[in-house]
Predict the 3D structure of the following.
Amino acid sequence: MPERAGAKIALLLGNGHPNLEWTLAPSVLAPLAVYAGIYAWRFRNARREEGGRGAGAWRALAFAGAMVALLAAVASPLDGLGENYLFSAHMVQHILLGDIAPVLVLLALSRVIMRPATRRLMSVERRLGRLAHPFTGLVLWLVLIYVWHIPAMYDAALNSPFLHGLEHMSFFMAGIALWWPLVQPVPMRRGLQGLAALGYLVAAKMSLGVLGLYLAWGSSVTYQHYETVPRIWGLSAIDDQNVGGAIMMAEQTMVLGIALLVLFARLINRSEADELREERLEARA
């Protein structure tokens, strides 16, 4: 075993440098290509059918951002860097998959673009009943994130390609579940509005912040996998873990700040719209 581990380390480091490369596997790129093709088809049809309503330039920009985030997470050298060398790089990958990419994917969608799936989603929501609630998405997101960060689960995923793929898919779907009630490409019957949306987002980010604090200030290595990989760039295993925790906390804080600004802007715009509506009704009366 020590000889095998030594040979692996030598192979990974080469001449003292990490061995990093892009992933061009069809199993990785094909799903992204299919998604891009379907989106381009629906976006073009929406522009033709509705004259751009629900398919504006900013949605195309969000789609481009989502593709960049997904490619960076699963096809760029970041994937190998996180799996074979640095926990902090793996954290960046998980942030892209579980937070950045999902919100951009949802921002790129609208009821018009999602036709005919829009009516089917509404039907599914009715069948789910009370489970079709924002609280369900929040709980699902937190459970999946924390379960996969249990040391035994985290290390097992790094040692099994199947589990690693399942972990990444779980993070992405959890991110969709979290952001859907806030973005609502298809309006929910129990959607979040006003201060409820603010509370939902603060609760989500603060709950995950506990994990970030633990990783950022911990004095022992949580994930044994990173005690066996080559050390690069002068980072010890514990320093690498602390950096990863700090990255998680910084990203959560930044996303929370941006989202709060957007939600406040929505509140102000809605308030102004309501006032204008009342003035029109009074004028007619």
User: Anything to note?
Assistant: The radius of gyration is 22 Å. DSSP finds twelve helices and no strands in the chain.
